[in-house]
Amino acid sequence: MSNRLESKVIIVTGGTSGMGSAFARRAASEGATVLIGARDKERGESTAAEIARDGGKALFVPTDVTVEEEIAHLVDVAVTEFGGLHGAFNNAGGGNIQGTIRSTEASFWDRVIALNLTSVFYSLKHEIPAIIASGGGSVVNNASVVGVAGDPTAVAYSAAKHGVVGLTRSAALDAAKENVRVNALVTGLVNTPLWRGFSADNPEAASTLLGRQPTGRAADEAEIAAFAAFLLSDESPFINGAALAIDGALTAGY
Fold it and tell me: Taking a C-beta distance cutoff of 8 angstroms, is the pair 118, 69 a contact?
């Protein structure tokens, strides 16, 4: 494994499972100091401890990404404890996302938007100034294929992820001259615990979704983590403001 993230301090939200956990481990293995922001203290501390046992550097900071003050605290810990901030993988999101335009209640809409879009706004608002003060760096926001194409069964989630793509592009333009890059991942099916649980509970629906996937499989978490690590490294200096599909050609057919 390379040390291309050596000396970088990187935040990952939602870093206790799935793509976030895979990225935290990958970034640490490439030399980064990783701050894991999430709500689950037990899993967060366990993940940080496992990274440390493998020779990496990680710290868990209890964080509810829907609360701006907690995001601000996460960034402050990075700066005060480790001397700066050089990158972030804003990955937290998901939750209960199913609901059509006619069935979605306002309270459900508010929860989905808060977790999947407002949290990214809070993150960028506090991360970008800290990254600028540290000399520049990179941010990756985890969007979704339904951030570039509609989904009638998950309208709030799709709206939120479309918002993440727009927010990514706007933030990239805002900070480009200050040496901060901001990109979004357009992820498709990924073999996370959430997907495995959904597949077990809804085998027919899971089979239908896999049937739409040109590759016939879901991505491995490690594949997403590797791409995010590349975008957060100095090997991708001219990739900025992009919504990058890592979806096994799923959106190529839309």
Answer: no
